[in-house]
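A sample follows:
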Amino acid sequence: MLTSAAGDIGFKLHKILNGSIIVLALLTVLEGAALTEWSAMATIFMTLGANAVAEAFSRGLADEIASKRRVTFSKATDLLRSSLIVVTPGIVPAVAFIAVSAGWLPLGKAFVGACWFLVFVLFAAGYIACTVGGGKVWRGLLYGAAISTFGLGIVALRLMTV
């Protein structure tokens, strides 16, 4: 049985992995579109926000079904607050797009840098997920490599379409 702290860390890692994959997929699609850095950033944060609301709603609905009573406003707010961590991976491209807007970075390099950083985030989250559960270092590296492979696949698709 997971402790409350381990369960909380596991849920946060789940949402960060989820958000990273969503952002990588969006970066792949948005780079080919004729968007400004601001509209790309808005698209990313709106998508991540919608994901957080959907996650909170589905968890609340599951709680209602399991307990056969309505979720309180307080509980719904807590569910939404915990689900909003999915927005965290959107900070990476936001910083890159702000650098584009300030003229410090070309838009293409912002997309590339954000993609590779998110692949690293996937690796780190996989590694941490294993070590929090008490796994050995080599197993954490294996988990990180396995999870980041999905990000690498998205980056590879992006490179094939550019």
Remarks:
- The mean pLDDT is 86.
- The longest helix spans residues 37-67.
